[in-house]
Design brief:
By secondary structure, the chain is α+β, with helices and mostly antiparallel strands. 61% of the residues lie in helices and 12% in strands. It contains 20 helices and twelve strands. The strands form three sheets. It has a five-stranded antiparallel beta sheet with strand order 2-1-5-4-3, sandwiched between helices. Strands 7-9-10-12-11 form a five-stranded mixed beta sheet. Strands 6-8 form a two-stranded antiparallel ribbon. Helix 4 packs parallel to helix 7. It is rod-shaped. 27% of the residues are buried.
């Protein structure tokens, strides 16, 4: 911002210096002219009409020059495009005055002179320029403003050409009769009146003082056209002189207004500079944000120190070269991201978000905002390199993940140790009891062994089930286990498995109900995997349902899926646990004094088995009143000539193995 404001400060200072020099020079010329005129009057008692006309011409030239220079100086200070375009309007006036084609009339009250009063072509040229100052042709205005010197030279060339052609009487349009002259000046009256009103409205809408000054100046050109109409019909010297004076007043109003505008602009810039001092310091010395400012034509206007440091730009590098560096740096950004930013910016005038440069791995937090400065649109880009912050955040996430995994692993080993120790303790206690009885009462050994045989068997199954689960989950991880699809009656399979665990449930005083909307449905599936999944869900339902509770197994089908629902009215699964319940080693109660045993692997195996069967599984629980699992299996068969539909047969050993941790039955 300091570079930008230094540029503005230098521009204002230079403008002021030029204005002082021009005013001094013109004042000196006017003063000398008046002194010469005074000596001429004193040396002669007669009024020389030719001298008065010459003086009028010189005075008009001076006023027009002042108007041109004032418009240009005011444009340099305020950047109002209308002022520069109006300077072209007055340049045409200057050429006409210089060539004697404006107010070129006799002061004789008996002479009506309209043939050389004005050049129609240059008059129309002025009207075009005046209209163009109010137009919305942004592209054409951009061309003019980017080529100001050329625009001035072209205007001078065209106006001079028309003037010289007029002197040689080869111009296309001239006035040889009063009617045509009057008609044209009536047109000028209407045209200048409309332009004056438009500029006045613009002044009121924008609260810009300078536009009302322009409106007043053009209003006097309208009055001059009215005087020209009267002067064309009545050759009165006073009318002619007043017509000339109106030209003076129009120029003098413009000069006075522009001088006031320059003074106001200087004052405003000083106030603005004072208000922005702190902001400029913060922006340029910011150690947090890189700040770039572009104009509406994508030319870099400002870059703060941190941004220069970020791009390794040396001090003293011109903005044009910096712009090339920035364009090269932006090539690594995804084109789709650039399009997204442009679309959002064009629609809403701003954009904010993150940009990732894939080639360098850099991530920046960026905002783009449209603002208006000095009557021109500017684009402010503020960004921060957050790559280290993102990497740190990712590292923390990875650390927390590893920490959680380590915790889960420790809990798993503690859980497995507990799960293995329980049956081992029972083995050891039972063996000690049998040894003692064998020594003290060997004749009753068989009887005592028979009493404890089931306990040993059940705990052996528990250990085997635990080891099988650990082995199987490892095989699933490495992709060793593959489904063996066959066509089977899924209704019969689920029903037989459900009925096979009824005895286990009844011993806990739990009711199991099987219900189905379909009697038979042949689909492809791996029978063993689905048996294991169903037994695991039923085992959990029995374990976590209190006495006199209910477990419901329901089935129905649609065109795409077979739906298998296992629902209980037990304690439910806490809501905070539901997102991770299918992860391995996750348990609701991880304490070693929990009521129900388990390793936390079962539901992970269930989910893997369902997915291997190309299905899906969902959980529904309010966290307090029961749990519902829903398995979805694809409703389709295997195609093949020699594929026979199979009927599932219950394997009692598998059921005993999967339900072995419901060990309260045997204690």
């Amino acid at each position: 911002m300091s570079d930008l404001n230094m540029s503005n400060k230098e521009k204002i200072s230079s403008t002021n210096q030029i204005a002082i020099n021009v005013i001094f020079l013109i004042s000196f010329i006017i003063g000398v002219s008046y002194l010469v005129l005074l000596f001429g009057i004193l040396s002669s008692n007669k009024i020389n009409t030719a001298d008065i006309i010459a003086f009028i011409k010189i005075f008009e030239l001076i006023l027009v020059l002042l108007a041109i220079s004032s418009c240009i100086l005011c444009y340099e200070s305020t950047n109002k495009e209308e002022l520069f375009i109006l300077s072209l309007f007055y340049i045409i006036f200057f050429i006409d005055v210089l060539l004697g084609n404006v107010d070129n009339m006799s002061l004789d009250a008996s002479t009506i002179n309209i043939s050389n009063y004005l050049i129609v072509e240059n008059s129309i040229f002025r009207l075009i320029i005046l209209t163009f100052s109010l137009s919305s042709f942004r592209k054409m205005k951009k061309i003019i403003m980017e080529n100001r010197i050329k625009s001035i030279l072209i205007t001078i060339a065209i106006a001079t050409s028309f003037g010289l052609l007029k002197h040689h009487d080869i111009l296309f349009t001239t006035f040889n009769d009063v009617a045509g002259f009057v008609t044209y000046n009536i047109f000028l009256t209407i045209f200048y009146g409309i332009i004056s009103v438009i500029y006045l409205k613009k002044s009121l809408d924008r609260s810009e003082y300078i536009y009302s000054v322009i409106s007043a100046s053009i209003f006097f050109f309208m009055l001059k056209a009215i005087y020209a109409v009267v002067g064309a019909t009545k050759a009165l010297a006073n009318v002619k002189l007043l017509s000339i004076s109106i030209t003076y007043i129009g120029f003098i109003i413009l000069l006075g207004g522009i001088i006031c505008e320059l003074l106001l602009s200087i004052r405003k810039n000083k106030e603005l500079e004072n208000e922005l001092t702190v902001f400029k310091k913060i922006a340029d010395e910011s150690r947090h944000s890189c700040i770039l400012i572009y104009d509406e034509y994508k030319n870099l206007k400002y870059i703060n120190s941190l941004a220069k440091q970020y791009y390794n730009i040396k001090e003293g590098t011109i903005y044009e070269d910096i712009n090339k560096i920035l364009i090269y740096e932006s090539k690594g950004i995804n084109p789709e991201k650039i399009k997204e930013i442009k679309d959002h910016f064009l629609q809403l005038g701003y954009w904010k978000g993150k940009i990732e440069v894939e080639e360098t791995g850099v991530t920046i937090s960026c905002s783009v905002q449209k603002i208006y400065m000095e009557d021109m649109k500017k684009i402010v880009i503020i960004f921060n390199d957050i790559t280290d912050r993102i990497r740190t955040k990712r590292s923390l996430i990875e650390y927390e993940k590893m920490k959680n995994q380590e915790q889960v692993r420790n809990e798993f080993f503690a859980n497995i140790s507990h799960e293995l120790r329980t049956p081992l303790n029972i083995f050891y206690s039972t063996i000690q009891l049998l040894d003692l009885k064998n020594k003290t009462n060997p004749e009753k050994f068989n009887e005592i062994y028979s009493d404890h045989k089931q306990c040993l068997k059940t705990n052996c199954q528990r250990m085997l089930r635990l080891i099988n689960n650990i082995v199987d989950i490892t095989k699933i991880d490495v992709g060793f286990i593959k489904p063996k699809f066959v066509n089977c009656d899924i209704v019969s399979l689920v029903e037989d498995i459900t009925l096979s665990v009824v005895n286990y449930a009844q011993n806990k005083k739990i009711n199991i109900v099987f219900d189905t909307e379909i009697e038979e449905q042949i689909i492809k599936c791996d029978e063993d995997m689905m048996e294991r999944a169903m037994l695991n869900l039923l085992s959990n339902a029995i374990k976590f349902t209190k006495q006199n509770g209910n477990v419901l197994v329901n089935m129905y089908a649609d065109e795409k899926w077979i739906h298998i629902i296992v629902k209980d009215d037990g304690m439910g699964i806490p809501i905070e646990m539901q997102g991770t319940i299918f992860e391995r080693f996750v348990q609701n109660d991880k304490s070693l004094t929990r009521l129900n045993e388990g390793s936390g692997i079962g539901l992970s195996i269930v989910q893997s088995a369902v997915k291997l069967n190309e299905g899906e599984i969902y959980l529904d629980s309010d966290g307090k009143n029961g749990t519902e699992f829903e398995i979805l299996l694809p409703n389709k068969k295997l195609d093949g000539e020699y594929l026979d539909d199979r009927i599932y047969k219950v394997d009692v050993s598998n059921i005993e193995l999967e339900l072995s941790d419901i060990y309260e039955l045997y204690i």
